[in-house]
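User: what does the whole thing look like in 3D?
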Amino acid sequence: MFDFTYHNPTKILFGKDAIERIREEIPSGAHVLMTYGGGSIHRNGVYERVKAALQGYRVTEFGGIEPNPQYATLMRAVELGRQAGVDFLLAVGGGSVLDGTKFIAAAIPFAGETWDIVEKRLEVREAVPLGAVLTLPGTGSEMNGWAVISHAEKRAKLAFYSPLVYPRFSALDPQTTFSLPPRQTANGIVDAFAHVMEQYVTYPVNAALQDRIAEAILVTLIEQAPKVMQNPTDYDARANIMWCATVALNGIVGVGVPQDWATHAIGHEITALYGIDHARTLALVLPAVLEFKREQKREKLLQYAERVWNLREGDEQSRIAGAIQRTRAFFESLDIPTRLSAYGIGAEAIPAIVRQLEAHGQTALGEHGDITPDVAAKILERCL
Ligand code: NZQ
Ligand code: ZN
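Assistant: Here's the predicted 3D structure for the full assembly of 384 residues, as structure tokens:
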């Protein structure tokens, strides 16, 4: 196991009254900027519950943060927050609203060019404190310090990290996810699945507990997914999915182990160029990365085959192929295609995606840093 330091400052409020509990966490007298997305919270009752919980606070609202949150939109919120003099941010929505709000938190007190926080990853020295009410499990943003921000004119979708933008608290009420359309439910499951795979299917370092936690999350997602797809108001299944997605990317699976974020890096470029949902890009790229890297990832793929898919018979190559095939089939069972052709995208797209990776310095991906642009092109050929 590698050496590590682990600190996660986010308090989790989980359960049916999680939203009502947020007022215990926001400093009294705070002027709160409440941020949200395109309106789902107006249709599922979350808006009213949050407003009731915020009674007695000064509240300024900013709605309209879109999926893959856009820099231009977020800068309007930054201006509003600066003018209103807010001193606490409350993000209410999915990963996009949470990520966007992390950027707003860092940008409000930032003196320079705010896009540099993302593009140049300038150090964030100060941020407005933030909390979250999560309505879409998947990204893990509710319990980490990462945010992914898009810039339409620059055709860029880039991540930044700061310990200062971990939510102070996140309220997770599985009931808020009952209203998710099947597509978003499925996206969240696949996103969480990929997060675990990218911290688990690398090479062994004898991190026995991290491996077991990773496998537990994967098995739980596989087991619970059909339940939420068939019965969107199954509270227990929704709760299990929600907690899986949080633990998948709150750092606990990834401490002390090698990681391979090539799938996410390539996926972000596909979203930036073609607007395909984040999780759908992962379903395209992940099986191809596993296939292409099956020799380097051999031991962990065999472990994955045995412990997650119960594949114990046959030779090594057939067990590995079986595990990758089951991974694809799992994504497809959620109605998420695993081939670019399903989106009408052909081989002509590959050079453009690879150029984007180069432009963003994503030229040494994977746990060995050996996924160069040429290798990424070969992986993309397997996604066609
Ligand atoms: O905008 P509204 O009207 O709220 O609707 C949203 C949106 O259209 C809807 N939705 C959310 N909760 C709902 C709901 N509809 C009905 N009922 C509910 N309870 O779902 C749509 C998609 O929302 P979005 O927030 O975009 O989805 P997701 O949570 O998948 O977030 C994706 C973003 O997170 C980034 C992605 O790159 C992408 O930009 N990621 C962030 C990460 C992080 N911070 O650690 C890691 C991830 O790998 C990922 O990259
Ligand atoms: Zn993701």
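In plain terms: The beta strands are 11-14, 31-36, 58-62, 88-93, 130-134, 146-151, 156-161, 169-172. The domain at 182-381 is CATH 1.20.1090.10 (Dehydroquinate synthase-like, alpha domain).
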